[in-house]
Sequence to fold (618 residues):
Amino acid sequence: MYWIAWKMLIGNRGKYLGIIFGVVFAALLIAQQASIFCGLMSLTVSQIRDVEGPAIWVMDENVQFVDDIKPLKDTELFRVKGVPGVDWAVRFYKGIGRARLQEGSYEQMILLGLDDATLIGAPQDVFLGSIAALRSPDAVIIDEAGYRRIWPDEPFQLGRVFEMNDRRAVVVGITKASRTFQSFPILYTRYSQAVRFAPPERKVLSFVLANPEPGLSSQEVCDRIAAQTGLQALTRSQFIWQTIWYYLQKTGIPINFGITVLLGFIVGTAIAGQTFYLFTVENIRQFGALKAMGTGNSTILLMVLSQAANVGLIGYGVGVGLAAAFGWWTQTTTRLAFFMPWQVLGLTAAAVFVIVLVASVLSVRKVLVLDPAIVFRG
Amino acid sequence: MPASAPPNTTAAITLRGVTKEFGRGESRTRALRGVDLDIPYGELLMLVGPSGCGKTTLVSIMAGTLEPTAGTVRSLGHDLTTMTNGRKVRFRRDHVGFIFQATNLLPALSAVENAAVPLLIAGWQRQRALLAAAAMLDRLGLGDRLTSLPSELSGGQQQRVTIARALVHEPRLLVCDEPTSALDAENGRITMELIRQVAVQPDRAVVVVTHDPRAYPFADRIATMEDGRIESVTTAVDQA
Fold:
C-alpha cells in the first residue's frame, strides 16, 4: 500500500513539487541561518581554539568571555604555578592595539603576547617566516587576512615595518589564523614585547595558560586553582562555552537569527501543510474508494504518513544540500561566517519532522473521518 | 418475489426492516423505510427507481459501507448490523467488489495497477497481484492496455478496468452503482454484457443500481424502489 501511496503522491507532479518546495524552503532557511549563527558563534571563540597546547585558562573571576579582559598582576602566574597538580603555567597577553602604518593610516589590531621562553599559544600555520623569528627585537607575526586588509593587493613580504602604539614593529612571519568576531588583524608577539606595545597599565597579564600534571583531569586542577588562588580557572571547553553563552545571553544575535529561523519554519509549514492538504482533498474520492474496498484507517494513516515522510526526506535532503552548497560558496568567495555542525542538521531535521507531521495531521484527519459511502455519491 | 417474502436460507443477502435516517430534528430525512429483501447467490438483481428513492443508500448498506438506523442486514452469512467497524472493513476487503458510478480509478496508476488494488489491500505481493490483475484485464479485452493510465483510456475501457478491479479478488458480492450512466449506449451494453458474463457466478450475488432501462434485460430480477421502500420485485421478462 505504501507503493500506492507513493504513486499517488508523485502522480500529481504539481502538488508533489509544491509540497517539496515548502519543505525545501524551510529546511534551506533553517539550516542556512542556523549555520551562519553557528559561524558567528564560532568566530567569538576562534582565539581560544587557535591557542593549542594549554588545557586550562586562568583569569580574573569576573571575566565573562574571551574579549572581556580584566588584567591580573604578574605575580598571579607564580600562584598558579604553586597549585599542586599544575604541570606548567605561562603568561598570555590579549589586548587591542592601534597600529600606524607607513602611509599614515591607523588600524585596530588584536595583540596576542606569548610566553617569551616557550612561545606557547603560537600560531600553528605560519606559511611565511618562522615562529622562532619572534625572538628577534620588535618582531610580530601577522595573520594572512590581516595582512591583506592593511596591505591589500600587495604580495606577502617579510620585514615590513609599522608602528604599534608609537613603537616599531617588524613583520617576521605570516600565518593562517581563524577569523575573529571583530575581524581585526591579529598580531602575535612575545609577552614582553606585547606589554611594551600595550598602553602602560599597572596590571597587564590577561590570562595564565596552564596544563595539569599527567594523570590529573583538567577539571580537578581547575577546581584546585580556583580554591587556592580565588581566580577563575576553566578548561578550554568550558571557556569556549562560557564565551558562547555570553553572546547568546547578552546580544541580540540569537533573537535576530531565531526570528528568521522561525519565519522559515512558519512559511515552510504553511506552504507544505496547505499543499499537502489540497493534495489530500483532491484525492479524497480515491481514498474513499480505497476505504470502501477494505483499506483500514490504520493503513490509510500509514499511507499518508509515508507520503509525508517521502516529501520530508526529499525536502530535507535538498534543503540541507542547498544550504551546504551556499556555505561552500560563501567560504570560497566571501567572508560570511558559516559553520554547519551536526546539531544544525539535527535541528533542521526536527523542524522538517514537525512540518511534515503538521501537514499530515491536517490532511489525515480529513481522510480518517471520511465515510467510505462517499464513493456511491455521484 | 414480493417484498414481504419469507427469509431464503440460501440468500446471499437478507434485509429485514431496514431503515436509514440522515440528519436530526427537523432536518431529519428518512432514506429507507423498512426494506425487506432477499438476494440469492447466482442472481443479478437490479435496483431501479427515481433519484432520491434510496437505491444508493440501500446498496451502501448491503456492501457494509453504511450503517442502517434500524433493521437487520445479513450479507454472505455475516450479520452486518452487529459487526464491528474493523470486521466490516475486512468483510469488504475479502468479500465485496465495487463498481462505482465515477470510476474512482487512481489517476497515477496504470490499468493493471488499478486492477490490482484489491489484491494489494488484501496483502498480496505486488508482482503476484499485478499478474492476476493482468489476467483479469486480458479476460475483459484490455490485454493490450495494461500499462495505460486511466487518462489514456476511453470511458468504456475505464469501466472495464473497474470491472477487473471489482472481480480480481473473486468477491462473493458485487455491488455496481450506475455502471453505465457515464457511457454511451454501445459501451453501456458492452459493460452490462461483461458484468453478466464474467461476474455472475453460482456462488456470487450481483447488485446493480441503475437508471438505465437499456440495462434491464441483463437482470434476473428488478427491484423497483419508491420513497425509501421496495415497491415491486419483478423479473426482466415482466419488465419487458
Q: What stands out?
A: Chain B touches chain A at residues 56, 59-60, 63, 65-66, 86, 89-94, 96, 98, 100-102, 104, 106-109, 113, 117-118, 120-122, 126, 177-178, 181 (CB under 8 Å). The beta strands of chain B are 11-22, 29-40, 44-48, 70-75, 78-79, 96-99, 173-177, 205-209, 221-226, 229-235. The first strand of chain B starts at residue 11 and ends at 22. Helices of chain B lie at 55-63, 85-95, 111-115, 117-121, 126-139, 155-167, 185-199, 236-239.
